[in-house]
Write a sequence for this structure.
């Protein structure tokens, strides 16, 4: 997948546990775990917004786009 999750790093910077992020964001525990571990393939923008607000960051900071190189590269 061409996206890398920054969720773990952001949680660590904020000294925030899974439980605290789940409580603050009101996002299901399995969704938080899958997003952190990069096992998530789809996510609603509303969910990303809730996570970003709970972490006090911008939505675009949650994930990093990793451009996949083409065979010509």
């Amino acid at each position: 997948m061409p996206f890398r999750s920054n969720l773990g790093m952001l949680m660590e910077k904020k000294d925030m546990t899974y439980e605290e992020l789940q409580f603050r964001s009101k996002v299901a525990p399995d969704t938080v775990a899958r997003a952190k571990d990069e096992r998530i393939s789809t996510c609603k923008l509303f969910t990303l917004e809730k996570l970003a607000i709970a972490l006090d960051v911008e939505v675009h900071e949650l994930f990093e786009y990793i451009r996949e190189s083409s065979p010509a590269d």
In short: The mean pLDDT is 88. DSSP finds four helices and two strands in the chain. The chain has one domain: 3-65. Helices lie at 7-13, 18-25, 29-36, 45-55.
